[in-house]
Write a structure and sequence with these properties.
This protein is α/β, with parallel strands linked by helices and 630 residues long. 30% of the residues lie in helices and 23% in strands. Strands 12-11-8-6-7-14-15-23 form an eight-stranded mixed β-sheet, sandwiched between helices. Helix 2 (26-35) packs across helix 3, helix 11 crosses helix 12 and helix 14 packs across helix 16. The protein is globular and about 70 Å long. The structure holds 5'-O-[(S)-butoxy(hydroxy)phosphoryl]adenosine. Residues 263, 309-310, 385-388, 410-415, 435, 496-498, 510, 513, 519, 524 line the site of 5'-O-[(S)-butoxy(hydroxy)phosphoryl]adenosine.
Length: 630
């Protein structure tokens, strides 16, 4: 099809890529989805299994609490597992896994289902029923996937806490979700060292009251404390007779909750984003199918962590819904050497690799020789997510990892959106640094303060103007905050919290967060969490956190601290505070730098003006200072 000439630097898909692509013409698909939006989504839903079909595709009767596929009965775990068991996929590999220490495991759909049912029976025996919350806190091991699917099977609501979080972060999430059961691994391997997850969990449990039982999965085998009557070894539970029985998937409402995932917002505590069985299932299924174009024989690797939305949607649910074969790797990309990933790609013949700009930049730093030692010719498609990718890193990824032939799917989305929202597809022309256009059918816009669309290439607020199936349904326990935070700034439209530009070709360029969220190595952290960890230290009176540009991490955390009367500012104290934040929130939140100050810029109403701190640190003009108190 004749392409209109696009502005700027453009990479066109090769003939080979187009030939293999399932969608050959993006415009045709988009036109169909735009013209009959509900028809588009219901056609996707038809590919999945429903115990009972829906009465309505989209129910807008109680905006912004949109509902999808109302009246329908389904279960996402049933669609991930059971549906494949009656086909030849029964013996297809669902997952294969390598540990950082070289351990290897693989699971066919048949066996994955067995393990999931067993785990579900274990949870049942602990009294877990539909609607109960179960927190999962583990490293990247297969049991994490079993646990998530086991919850889904029962209609229990899982809340996965990233294994890189620590005591207070875990405590807060246990408490807010009022989890009945915690599933934890004894430890995880990170760069050859053991992270004592059970030890962290014990500390968090001492602060939290609702957990009745703890299931402990043995991974590292180091000495841990097991509290009698509360803690149980997973492998011992598996050996009990109930472990071997099947477990029917609960027949659920399309709108029944599937999971909570905590994420940082503008102010205060992390909020529990709630997703449901039906709509989330349809959104993740279709988006993965179209964007990563998974063919039956593909070996797909999403290198994210299951503890974040990328892992939920595109390691666990999306791939299994598509009957794909996925690879999961436990460790860090550069351990023990910077070729670990490239070695894995060669060894397993990975066809699709989906990762984050920070990983790409981190590996790029070691030079071309490491990847060039490996045969990466199995790769067909690449992907990136989490933060804007700088064109240099994009081009390195494309040229060195993708042989100049693999298109890069730069996918913009959020915990809240559940699925890709701005994304290319293999057949579309790419511009390095841009994710291209919204997923077919979606309507997005870039607007000014007054909600008017800005001109091409002008910066503005990124908003979404139409509901979509895998959208968050609410903030668990806080529907008011859901309305205020996402739907009030521009009534009727969803506020993303990002600023962006849209160019003359309709391609979106994400600039970054406009709120108090800092993206560190693609991880989403809130200034409030870091600041409250700092003030929980006995020496600290007040604190402010900001993100400053960092070559590999994208942003690094810089903190300004006012000490209590009589406390002396020393480098040792600075170090202690950094460690303290690491212990409370997690290593990912450990500040890069702590600066002791005697005052902080505030508005007359007492809010810290972080943009002023940032401007000062960067040596740029702080802009309008009329609200500054002093
Ligand atoms: C925020 C959402 C969704 C998976 C991981 C992040 C930023 C995400 C991109 C991208 C530029 C991106 C945005 C967004 N972001 N993907 N391709 N290009 N920025 O999920 O933790 O909920 O964070 O990540 O700022 O709002 P999340």
């Amino acid at each position: 099809m004749a392409q209109k000439k696009l502005s700027g630097e453009v990479f066109l898909p090769s003939k080979a890529v187009i030939e293999k692509a399932t969608v050959k013409d993006w415009d045709v698909l988009n036109k169909r989805a735009q013209e009959d939006y509900e028809g588009f989504w219901s056609a996707e839903a038809e590919n999945l299994h429903w115990f009972k079909k829906w009465d309505k595709v989209l129910d807008e009767s109680n905006k912004p609490f949109y509902k999808w596929f109302t009246g329908a009965k389904t279960n996402i775990a049933y669609n991930c597992l059971d549906v494949h068991l009656t086909t030849w996929r029964r013996n297809k590999l669902a997952f294969f896994w390598e540990g950082e220490n070289g351990d290897f495991k693989s699971y066919s759909y048949y066996y994955l289902n067995k393990y999931v049912c067993r785990f579900a029976n274990i949870l049942k025996s602990m009294g877990v029923v539909k609607g109960d919350r179960v927190t999962i806190y583990m490293g990247r091991v297969p049991e994490l996937v079993f646990a998530m699917l086991a919850c889904a099977r029962l209609g229990a609501i899982h809340s996965v806490v990233f294994g890189g979080f620590s005591v207070e972060a875990l405590h807060e999430r246990l408490e807010d979700s009022k989890s009945k059961v915690l599933i934890v691994s004894d430890g995880s391997y990170v760069r050859g060292k053991i992270v004592d997850l059970k030890g962290i969990a014990d500390e968090a449990l001492a602060r939290a009251a609702t957990v009745e039982h703890v299931v402990v999965v043995k991974r590292t085998g180091h000495d841990i404390n097991m509290e009698a009557g509360r803690d149980y070894w997973y492998h011992e539970l598996c050996a009990l007779p109930m472990g071997n029985q099947g477990c029917e998937a609960e027949v659920l409402d399309a709108e029944d909750p599937l999971f909570l995932l905590y994420t940082s917002g503008t102010t205060g505590k992390p909020k529990a984003i709630l997703h449901t069985h039906g709509g989330y299932m349809v959104g993740t299924y279709a988006s993965l199918k179209y964007v990563f174009d998974i063919h039956e024989e593909d070996r797909y690797w999403c290198a994210a962590d299951p503890g974040w939305i990328t892992g939920h949607s595109y390691i666990v649910y999306g791939p299994l819904l598509n009957g794909a074969t996925s690879f999961m790797y436990e460790g860090a990309p550069s351990h023990p050497y910077p070729n670990r990933w490239w070695q894995l790609i060669e060894k397993y013949g990975i066809n699709i690799l989906y990762t984050a700009p920070t990983a790409i930049r981190g590996l790029m730093k070691y030079g071309d020789a490491w990847p060039q030692r490996h045969d990466l010719s199995s790769l067909r498609l690449l992907g990136t997510v989490g933060e804007p990718i700088n064109p240099e890193a994009w081009k390195w990824y494309h040229r060195v990892i993708g042989r100049g032939e693999c298109p890069i799917m730069d996918t913009w989305w959020q915990t809240e959106t559940g699925m890709f929202m701005i994304t290319p597809m293999p057949c579309v022309p790419l511009k390095p640094g841009s994710g291209g256009r919204p997923f077919p059918g979606l309507i997005m816009d870039v607007v000014n303060e007054d909600g008017e669309s800005v001109k091409a290439n002008e910066e503005g607020f990124l908003i979404i103007k139409r509901p979509w199936p895998s959208m968050m349904r609410t903030i668990y326990n806080d529907p008011e905050r859901y309305v205020n935070q996402y739907w009030s700034r521009y009534p009727g439209y969803y506020l993303t919290g990002d600023s962006a530009r849209r160019d003359e070709d309709g391609y979106y360029w994400i600039i970054g967060r406009v709120d108090d969220v800092i993206k560190v190595s693609g991880y989403r952290l809130g200034t409030a969490e870091i600041e409250s960890a700092l003030v929980s230290h006995t020496s600290v009176a007040e604190a402010a956190a900001i993100g400053l540009p960092h070559e590999v991490k994208g942003n690094a955390i810089h903190c300004f601290v006012i000490l209590k009367e009589g406390v002396e500012a020393t480098p040792q104290l600075g170090e202690e505070l950094r460690k303290h934040v690491g212990h409370e929130v997690g290593p990912i939140a450990r500040p890069e730098n702590i600066e002791f100050v005697s005052s902080l810029p505030k508005t007359r109403s007492g809010k810290i003006m972080r943009r002023v701190l940032k401007a000062k640190a960067l040596g740029v003009d702080p802009g309008n200072l009329s609200t500054l108190e002093e």
